[in-house]
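We close this part of the discussion by returning to an individual protein. In the encoding step, the backbone of a single protein was reduced to a row of integers, each denoting a local shape. The sequence in question and its structure tokens are set out directly beneath this paragraph.
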Amino acid sequence: MKLRLREILKDRSMTLKAFSELSGISQPNLSNYINGNVSPTLEMLTRISESLNVPLTELFEEPASLEFYVRYKGNMHSITSKDIINLIESKCSNG
């Protein structure tokens, strides 16, 4: 089973290099986990989830089947849940 690590990092606009530095896990190992070439140990899974501050189970959940896109200046852009949360937080803080 592949980890959802790629999607989680993308949602957070975080590179594999940045996450490697944050978690202390080498980029080649992370890449192997993402591509399903190697299965991480429970210790590695715990380290990944703690570094991302997400429940361990979120690493394995299927991504939402609902996707949003917006066309802006002729280009299509996907809208992530993080984008929606940021918009809501911005609206709430501006009163």
Remarks:
- The chain has a mean pLDDT of 86.
- The radius of gyration is 16 Å.
- Residues 4 and 58 are 8 Å apart (CA to CA).
